[in-house]
Amino acid sequence: MTTEPAPSPELTPPASPFAPGNNWRGLGLRQQVARLLVVRASGHASDGQRRYPRWELTNADLKRLLEGGVGGVILLGGSAQELALRCSQLQSWAGQPLLLCADVEEGVGQRFEGASWLVPPLAIGRLLQPQPPGPQGAAAAPSTGPRAGATAPAESFPAARAEPGAQCLDPEPQERPPAAAAEDLAERYGRCTGRQARLLGLNWVLGPVCDVNNNPANPVINVRAWGEDPATASTLAAAFLRGAQAEGVLCCAKHFPGHGDTSSDSHLELPRLPHSRARLEAVELPPFRAAIAAGVASVMTAHLLLEALDGERPATLSPAVLDGLLRRDLGFEGLIVTDALVMEAITAHHGPGEAALLAFKAGADLILMPADADAAIDALVAAIDSGALPRQRLEASLERRERALAAVGPAGGQPPAPSPENDPAWGGLSGDPNSELVSPAEAALARELVDLSLEINGPALWQAPSSPPQALPPGPGLNLIRLDSSLACPFLPAMAPALVRPAGAGYQSCLIDSRSPSPWSGDPQAPLALERLPGGPVLLQLFVRGNPFRGSAGGEEPWPAVVSQLLAKGRLAALAVYGSPYLWESLRPLLPDSLPAAYCPGQMPLAQALLLDRLGLAAAALEGGFTD
Amino acid sequence: MTTEPAPSPELTPPASPFAPGNNWRGLGLRQQVARLLVVRASGHASDGQRRYPRWELTNADLKRLLEGGVGGVILLGGSAQELALRCSQLQSWAGQPLLLCADVEEGVGQRFEGASWLVPPLAIGRLLQPQPPGPQGAAAAPSTGPRAGATAPAESFPAARAEPGAQCLDPEPQERPPAAAAEDLAERYGRCTGRQARLLGLNWVLGPVCDVNNNPANPVINVRAWGEDPATASTLAAAFLRGAQAEGVLCCAKHFPGHGDTSSDSHLELPRLPHSRARLEAVELPPFRAAIAAGVASVMTAHLLLEALDGERPATLSPAVLDGLLRRDLGFEGLIVTDALVMEAITAHHGPGEAALLAFKAGADLILMPADADAAIDALVAAIDSGALPRQRLEASLERRERALAAVGPAGGQPPAPSPENDPAWGGLSGDPNSELVSPAEAALARELVDLSLEINGPALWQAPSSPPQALPPGPGLNLIRLDSSLACPFLPAMAPALVRPAGAGYQSCLIDSRSPSPWSGDPQAPLALERLPGGPVLLQLFVRGNPFRGSAGGEEPWPAVVSQLLAKGRLAALAVYGSPYLWESLRPLLPDSLPAAYCPGQMPLAQALLLDRLGLAAAALEGGFTD
Question: ipTM more than 0.85?
């Protein structure tokens, strides 16, 4: 079935210092081709500050490529202020309006500190789930929310999903919002992301993730998805992109035709999917159809092999998937952009020029992070010169890029100044709400999303109003934290609530990550080697979610056995899970009602603070050294 | 003996947008008093980005205090670009020229990423040492360097201090510079620091440390000092400040009258020193006399109790030390600034208003980081109103502040833009060398300082030119790293050479810090519990130096026993020590000549890269993930 994409009425072009028009027509072939590349840069100013020098171009190479006509840059690293300076710098190096983009899927603050860092999308998706998972499912209330239009989920979520125990004891039970309210949250999420991205100088948001996360072991999508079922993912991804594009940025539906049902990481290898076309129509494609119907400006391809569509080539390089399925069958007329061509799934099989040429031939308009930008340009130029690639194909891509840019205007921004009136968020220059990086409404949204997505094991101790909240027995105790890596961990600054609050209660922090001495005993029944850790009651805090390059979603670690071990010894004082709902759901059945425990999909300090509030571990005077 | 301070001929006032003059005379008393405060701010833009919220004022409080006349801010946190934006912001909130300062003792890049991060001062001091310490002392060459004037060390350092083994095998033996060259290095160190500080908007560098580090267990001074003997510390501290003040910033000699011989940390408690006045004259005071003779603009007081001078009050609050010793005996006419009054050594004994008043009465001009700025102002205003503090005393301090500011001009800067021509350092706007954050000469200085201060155990394997350098046996192996804290560790970004290079050789990183599961067996003869760590040959990398708030200089950990344990098992493949010379000197005698091992006083990535080069572990393709 072909769906004609609806034009987006919300993309209003701001004034541009460049004459947009068809100005590519006067360029030489090499510069025309270069426009279709999107290269990678650090958001930091100097080469020495690059966090990933293997992937991030030096300033000398960046300037040379931009002067040579390269038309886009993807940015990672640096604070919001640094990003704003960087966007202006890059735009000033280019002789044409750039596409500047970033993977700001969970708010701009996920990548650029100082902006709003929101809970992952699946937090909202779980509010809309047809059936609440886990033990509380049986007690779920009947549907109460209204249907939310053609793309709404088949069944609305129950009005209250909190488990019965906590619900009747909690003095302020959380009302789960109706379906329309969840959709509204997703749209505000998009507006917040789009407005802040635009303010800092980006004009292209690489979201929403349109993958349906129906495989809890997925190491790379996981909580980045908007839903675990097609209807939820469709409704919310479309709402997000309507909100973001209304703020004057382009969005990008990814990863076509759907990366949700994989258990391997395409950053490391090429996943294969055996699904039939019928199954794709039922599960993977609906969110992309919804995004196209909502006017999404671009679609990003996935590096995965769909045996039913093309047994030879991954979607990114497959004419059957891009020209056939996406352009012809789904009727997408916007920009098709590859996922990063430097990923192992591609580079293990194709050289840098060959990969770019194959992607372009398959139907891609923009080439993201070619392994070698010059080689990619060379290969495309040679193919057009030789007639192997029709010149009209190039012109069609340039035309699409021009149209997209005309809708949003060129990139580039100025760093907003902090406003002392608008604590704790950055604010704007006096009185101009448009220059505030984080508006009061956005700060409230970030908090509301954490509050709504918190799940609590009951009963909570804060119900006793006569005594101060106190979830933890008196210390000395052990604050045992599991995380992927403690090095440069964005959610765990030295003063993070997950560190500071337990310390205030006398609990000594111990961090377990991939680089720590082993905490494991080798005994499957009692996996934690307790003699290697500080003694006393244990606050267990697990930061687990699917992250690229980790090779897993963390599900292979023996946390259920550890919880049982600590309970058997009478040492488990409280439990906090940040990130993966699947880990939380595997631990919930083990917990007695009396154990203070909670889950939040977000891992950022705000999530820690609000979750620990709910466990009765309130903010203490913030400790810590100040300087030398 | 009284030394009249020489006027500094190198402080040339830049053009100021403010009329300097005696403009404090027209102000009300409260505003006059407020000028003498220096409060603490984060270098980050937003309140939510503060790393130490207990110490760093919110933007609302900062703006209120600056509008109320507070005259100085000490900054910590953020990158060089963020600092520049922040300095301009703070200056714009104030109605008068501010003093903006930071503890940039080891280059501006020590605190603000993107600027030059230099080896700690003691690296240069050790080049000038009368007797090289440790086993290589006996083999030291005779003195060859010229005397360096009145403040030169009593004996010049030997021309080559590298141990004989490595020296004769090294194809490029390091020539140790003569005394004058070491002094020149210290002056260039100061110029680099002063120029970059000024460019970013600071006008006050809180250095040089003038303490003589003659106590290897000193937990807080250590490698921050310029020397382990009075002559070296005097020569080099004076050279540093001449260089820095010539670039248009004020310097600060600290911590008067000398914090080098303490084994406790005044951040945590009040150290007591039993030294006689004669001993102070011989050891502690010479560097301060030298700094005053060189025209240092300010002196910072120490929070320590000198029983011979004042048995009741710490130096910061003692009229005998400040008015008596510093002003009268040493003849210092510049600004006296307290060390931070929020430190436990003060707050454990005095309230915030009382501490500020006592310091001022004792002779301080500027009050750094009062525990409560409003209370400090209240107390000083009340004391003047009541006549308990003479108004002339206030006016003398205001006059000194005015004179100092007139010499350097107000603070505030603009972020330099990166120059792609000047890789890998930040460069300036095209063609203007004054706007480069890191000049080519400064980048070369940072490298030269590391090269000169590297110490190598021999023989090195790079002497075999026919085969590629390879210090490590083939992996899998263990890269065992000791550090204070892996959280937000500035010298260990995820792509740090100390992590990436061993990984390229098949060595798995394991990090031991204060928050890791215990790696200790409890057996003093074999302290490392090897079964908790990955197997294979071991590259041991120890990042150890005195750091405030750690309570020790790391000397209590059993690293000599670990080295013996690994050697006995045949598992020690190589050793790197970054930071403390005392740890290195305790390990050197245990090492066979054949073991690749090296020491650098610096811990930053540049030090890691050059040290690992010397161990034959050359840069490999930088690995690592790029994005989601």
Answer: yes
Model pLDDT for residues B557-585, shown as the tens digit of each residue: 899 999 999 999 999 999 999 999 999 99
Residue B529 has pLDDT above 80, yes or no: yes
**Chain B residues touching residue A426 (CB < 8 angstroms):** 45-46, 48
Q: Residue B21 has what pLDDT?
A: 47
Give residue B48's pLDDT.
85
* B63 at A interface, C-beta within 8 A: yes
Average pLDDT, chain B: 84
How far is residue A79's CA from residue A493's CA, in Å, rounded to a whole number?
Answer: 14
User: Within an 8 Å CB–CB cutoff, is residue A168 touching chain B?
Assistant: no
Is the Cβ–Cβ distance between A491 and A545 less than 8 Å? no
* Residue matched to tokens 């310490």: B133
Strand pairing partners for A576? Answer: A541, A598
B628 touches chain A (CB under 8 A): yes
At a CB cut-off of 8 Å and minimum separation 6, what does A485 contact? A513, A514, A515, B494
Query: Looking at the complex, does the CB of residue B522 fall below 8 Å from at least one CB of chain A?
Result: no
Q: Angle, to 10 degrees, between the axis of helix B179-200 and the axis of helix B230-246?
A: 40
Chain A touched by B268 (CB under 8 Å): no
Tell me the sheet residues that pair with B38. Answer: B72, B368
> How close is the nearest chain A Cα to the Cα of B49, in Å?
6
Interval B316-338: pLDDT, tens: 999 999 999 999 999 999 999 99
CA-to-CA distance for A50 and A41, rounded, in angstroms? 8
pLDDT at B371 over 90: yes
What does the alpha-carbon distance between residue B422 and residue B440 come to, in Å, rounded to a whole number?
7
pLDDT digits (tens, 9 = 90+) for B127-159: 886 544 443 433 333 333 333 333 333 333 333
Task: Please name the residue of chain A whose CA is at the shortest distance from the CA of residue B430.
Answer: A93
Q: How far is CA A423 from CA A191, A427, B77, B85, in A?
A: 21, 8, 19, 19
Neighboring chain B residues of A423 at a CB cutoff of 8 Å: 47, 58-60
A395 to chain B nearest CA, in Å?
30
Is it the case that residue A174 has pLDDT exceeding 50? Answer: no
**Nearest-CA distance A114 → chain B (Å):** 6
Catalytic residue among B255, B259, B267, B303: B267
Poorest-confidence range of A215-219, B77-81, B508-512, B560-564? A215-219
- Which chain A residues are Cβ-neighbours of B429 within 8 angstroms? none
Q: How many CA atoms lie within 13 A of A190 on its CB side?
A: 33
Spatial separation of the C-alpha atoms in residues A374 and A537, rounded to whole Å: 59
If 0-12 CB within 10 Å is exposed, 13-18 middle and 19+ buried, where does residue A549 land? middle
Give the separation between CA A575 and CA A452, rounded to whole angstroms: 19
pLDDT above 50 (res A188): yes
Specify the residue for token string 């919001």.
Answer: A80
DSSP B327-344: IIIS---SEEEPSPTTSH
Active site residue B339: yes
d(CA A225, CA A232): 10
Confidence of residue A548 (pLDDT cuts 50, 70, 90): low
The helix (run of H) or strand (run of E) holding residue B425 is none
- Of all residues in chain B, the one with the smallest CA distance to A496 is B51
Model confidence band, residue B546 (pLDDT cutoffs 50, 70, 90): confident
Which of the residue ranges A122-136, A173-187, A558-572, B231-245 would you say has the lowest mean pLDDT?
Answer: A122-136
**Three-state SS for B385?**
helix
Distances in Å between the Cα of B381 and the Cα atoms of A462, B95, B374, B437 are: 45, 20, 11, 42
Q: For chain A, say whether B386 makes contact (Cβ under 8 Å).
A: no
Q: Clarify whether A259 is annotated catalytic.
A: no
Distance CA A337, CA A316 (A): 9
